[in-house]
Write a structure and sequence with these properties.
The chain is α+β, with helices and mostly antiparallel strands and 342 residues long. It has two domains: 227 residues, 2-Layer Sandwich (Nucleotidyltransferase, domain 5), CATH 3.30.420.10; 69 residues, Transcription Termination Factor Rho, Rna-binding Domain, Chain A, Domain 1, CATH 1.10.720. It is built from twelve helices and eight strands. Strand 5, helix 9 and strand 6 form a beta-alpha-beta unit. Helix 3 packs antiparallel against helix 5. The chain is globular.
């Protein structure tokens, strides 16, 4: 549903685009000032107070300059020699090779006091499917009909668990033919499913059983801003429950991908991200669980390429906001069932 999500309009949500655009502009300035191309963003945290005087950073800058001058064939050959993935477009391969050298250099320098940080133990990918029509009118209220989660370990760099429940819509219980054909979710599936409050309870229990937010630090990750700022927000209002605290901040992988690989927004759609990384879509498009698994595969490849995946969006008072990279890195709070609205 990733393309269809971009055409959704609601009266309930006021998207603060000026805040988002201002943040992106500010971050571009910060990246230029910090010399991002010389010291690319990786899973190793930057030095305290932005001090890049340590000799290791000069070595990294020199290596980056050499990599920038490599042809595609030279990049592929070097990656092969290092037993690294050779798939993807040229910019992806350059970033992968830079991150590999930076990681090696910083690991060697860690004994000298260069800090290394792992942001989260787990990343939980969520990609809802919701009721829809071919041409959604402005007044249409989308109800979640599939609640999938895919759990990724940042230590083993693999998918370790999945959750999936279908949801019975209550406001418009009859699915449109367009929605059925798009998502593959049948009327029988939703008729036999629980309502959203009960499914949310199951999702919370699943997260709690895995000790996320208590023993392990985790973050939610989505493909765009719609799942949390629109679908979940609208659904909570329709179900007369408060928005869950654990879902108020998340990683928008489209932003992370665009910033890390330095590509424009049109190249951050799910299918394009997969293609650029040399990956093929696995499963049925617009299945929430299959979409979530493929988003997780992109996240894993980005982690392998040295990207810092960290929370970059949040919702507050029904509005979407960017989370600046200067903000402290915090995991999502322990999941709990939200209270009913007064």
């Amino acid at each position: 549903m990733d393309d269809h999500k971009e055409n959704i309009y609601t009266d309930n949500i006021r998207l603060n685009m000026s805040d988002v655009l201002r943040h992106d502009k500010d971050q571009s300035c910060l990246r230029i000032c910090a010399g991002e191309d010389s010291v690319p963003n990786t899973s190793t945290s930057p030095p305290p107070n932005g001090d890049y005087s340590h000799p290791v950073y000069k070595e990294i800058a020199m290596a980056n300059g050499q990599i920038n001058r490599m042809s595609m064939e030279e990049l592929r050959r070097k990656l092969s020699d290092l037993k690294l993935d050779t798939r993807g477009v040229k910019d992806v391969m350059k970033k992968r090779l830079k991150s590999h050298y930076k990681k090696q250099k910083l690991q060697s320098a860690a004994e000298e006091g260069v800090p290394i940080d792992k942001y989260y133990d787990y990343i939980c990918v969520v990609d809802f499917e919701a009721t829809c029509e071919r041409d959604n009118p402005p007044s249409f209220k989308h109800e979640i009909i599939e609640f999938p989660m895919v759990l990724v370990s940042t230590e083993t760099l693999e998918i370790v668990d999945t959750f999936q429940e279908y949801v019975k819509p209550e406001l418009n219980p009859q699915l449109s033919e367009f929605c059925i054909n798009l998502t593959g979710i049948t009327q029988k599936m939703v008729d036999e499913a629980d309502t959203f409050p009960r499914v949310l309870e199951k999702a919370v229990a699943w997260l709690q059983e895995r000790e996320l937010g208590t023993k392990y630090k985790y973050a939610i990750l989505t493909d765009g801003a719609w799942d949390m700022s629109k679908f979940l927000n609208i659904q909570c209002r329709l179900s007369c429950i408060r928005y869950p605290q654990f879902a108020k901040k998340w990683i928008n992988i489209r932003k992370s991908y665009g910033n890390f690989y330095k590509v424009p927004r049109p190249q951050t759609k799910l299918s394009t991200m997969l293609d650029n990384l040399g990956l093929k879509y696995e499963g049925r498009p617009h299945s929430g669980l299959d979409d979530s698994k493929n988003i997780a595969r992109i996240a894993l490849r980005m982690l392998q390429d040295g990207c810092q995946l960290r929370v970059n969006e949040r919702i507050h008072a029904g509005q979407l906001h960017s989370v600046p990279s200067s903000a402290p890195v915090e995991g999502a709070p322990p999941p709990h069932n939200p209270r009913s609205r007064d």
